Amino acid sequence: MASSSGSEHDGSVPSWRLVGPSSELSKKPCRLMFSPLGRDADVCLFHVKGEFFAMDARCSHSGGPLCDGDIEDSDGVLQVFCPWHDYDFNLRTGKSGTGLQQEVYEVKLEDSCVYVKHATALSLTPFPAVNKT
Ligand code: FES
């Protein structure tokens, strides 16, 4: 039996996180998935051309909101363009023509539901505010 350190659900080890039914999530090109760690850890769930992609929601350049970016198909390469300075990020790899790298996450469909492999829970609604002073 595999050793258990209790880490599967404590946010330290990536595991499959249920996001919701694919029939619902495929209705919009992008959804923001909230992380309990705060906005810097939020993730975009893109749905483009029948496929789901997950990527850190804050642009690795200066934190722009990639969920609000334009999505384009450039010769079969799907990219999102950051709304702040128009940097491109490949939805599949997270690579940008600028040399920056955006974190991407595996997505799977199982029993008509979407799962994202991530270190923390992900929710379509914000987590209760953490103490901020
Ligand atoms: S913040 Fe995204 S390109 Fe500058």
TrEMBL record:
Gene Ontology molecular functions: 2 iron, 2 sulfur cluster binding; metal ion binding
SUPFAM superfamilies, per database record: ISP domain
PROSITE patterns associated with the record: RIESKE
Heme found in the keyword field: no
Keywords: 2Fe-2S, Iron, Iron-sulfur, Metal-binding
One Pfam assignment: Rieske_4
Sequence ranges assigned to domain Rieske in this UniProt record: 16-116
Gene3D superfamilies hit by this protein: Rieske [2Fe-2S] iron-sulphur domain
Name of protein: Rieske domain-containing protein
Organism name: Muraenolepis orangiensis (Patagonian moray cod)
Lineage, broadest ranks: Eukaryota, Metazoa, Chordata, Craniata, Vertebrata
